[in-house]
Amino acid sequence: MKLNLEKYFDACNPGTTIDPGNPEDRGYYIDFATVRGGKVIEALKRTISRISPHKSTCQLFTGHIGCGKSTELLRLKAELEEVGFYVVCFEATDDLDVVDVDLTDILLAIAHQVSASLEKSQVELQPRGFQAFLKRTGEVLLTPIELSAEAEVAGVGIKGNTEEGVELSLPAGIGKITAKAKNSPQTRSKLRQYLEPQTTQILKYLNEEILQVATKQLKQQGKKGLVVIVDNLDRIENKVGSSSSKLLQ
After folding, report:
1. Tens digits of per-residue pLDDT, 150-205?
2. Where are the domains of the chain?
């Protein structure tokens, strides 16, 4: 058998994340639970699927960079999907500038990624409170634009018309606002000044208009529930004075 050097070196690359849910990657996975001091992923899965399957839980999985957290989280995702959960797993670095992050940035990133995944899965959220909030946020960041079916509202995408007016695509709206903030320190600062006093309201929108509504619909479709996994939060700098630093202390 001829050795495929390119495939061999790629398989040995320590920077490559192994996805145990992918049949091609499964052969490379080694369970190091015995030398890590316990079966952490099994414990996380047990809490979600057995101990509190009908209640919201929040769990922290931590370790130094490069120890295999991403691989283990992908394993958790695959195993939860096998038992019937709908899982949204994403890297925080997709939406965030890790050297300058605030709590509201993290909440918007979660709302963006979860709503985008649910939209692709045809889950109808209708988060009118969150949509109105996005419109107000867009007006703070940019010159307000008159609503129309062909336009964008201060950089926020329009999904379509309803009897009550124009409906915004939630992931598109959040994505455009967070992208502008990520690429511009000035915009990011202005956005935070507006959002920080409304952190509790953002959390309420996230819980009541996205997570709770989605969980109910997913269960009606036969799923056991909704699980959100956020990876790479360990790469965020814990800056003194930010609301995220207060949360992490």
Report:
1. 334 334 443 444 444 445 578 888 888 888 787 888 888 888 899 999 999 999 99
2. 98-221
E strands present in the chain: 85-91, 158-162, 165-168, 225-231
CA distances in angstroms from 152 to 57, 80, 108, 164, 186, listed in the order given: 37, 38, 19, 17, 22
Beta strand 158-162 with 85-91: parallel, antiparallel or unpaired?
unpaired
Residues 132, 134, 136: CA angle, nearest 5 degrees: 75
The total number of residues shown for the chain amounts to 249
Q: What average pLDDT is seen over the chain?
A: 82
Which H helix or E strand runs over 71? Answer: helix 69-82
Name the phi and psi angles at 231, rounded to 5: -100, 165
Residues 6 or more apart whose CB falls under 8 angstroms from that of 178 comprise 95, 105, 108, 109, 112
